[in-house]
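Tokens in:
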């Protein structure tokens, strides 16, 4: 199969696995419905009354941070729209693909930064940033976790939905392996199968 054929097959699988999800009630989309949390209010307004398949690529372009403000139900519901974006327009998906993989694997942004800092990798040219980065990581680790909890949204997935996500990871391995660190896709796949 070609990449386009595999992409078309995967998009059909996403529709089959996630297409029957009902539109979420307004109060189950984002983590804060108080109206005082600006990001949550904007995201709820954008997603209110919408199904994931109705969101255009342009609406989701460069919006990976949206995923951090969704409830577990909201995450499961809108995840296929971001997966679709990652397949059809990886540049517009921006960090969405990485965010999805990190969430599957249970790694937070602070985990990733901590891993980089502790890796022993040559950070030449970044010396002036390492101290600030260490401080930010420590602050992130001290804060309570915000956003979607890995166990919560993974528990909501059906076997068919997990299979679709595993096939997405396999698609990335087959066609975009060079965009990821060694073992990263395999780690996410194993985490999804737990």
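Residues out:
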């Amino acid at each position: 199969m070609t990449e386009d054929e595999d992409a078309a097959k995967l998009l059909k699988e996403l529709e089959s696995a996630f297409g029957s999800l009902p539109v979420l009630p307004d109060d189950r989309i984002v983590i804060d419905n108080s109206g005082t949390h600006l990001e949550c209010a904007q995201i709820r307004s954008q997603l209110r009354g919408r199904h994931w398949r109705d969101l255009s690529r342009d609406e989701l372009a460069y919006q990976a941070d949206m995923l951090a403000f969704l409830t577990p139900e909201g995450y499961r519901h809108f995840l296929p729209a971001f997966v679709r974006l990652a397949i059809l327009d990886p540049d517009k998906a921006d960090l969405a693909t990485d965010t999805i993989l990190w969430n599957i694997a249970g790694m937070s942004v602070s985990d990733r930064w901590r891993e980089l800092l502790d890796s022993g990798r040559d950070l030449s040219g970044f010396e002036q940033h390492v101290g600030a980065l260490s401080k930010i990581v420590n602050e992130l680790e001290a804060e309570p976790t915000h956003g979607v909890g890995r166990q919560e949204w993974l528990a909501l997935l059906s076997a068919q939905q997990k299979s679709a996500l595993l096939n997405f990871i396999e698609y990335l391995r087959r066609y975009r392996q060079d965009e990821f660190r060694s073992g990263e896709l395999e780690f996410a796949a194993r985490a999804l199968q737990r």
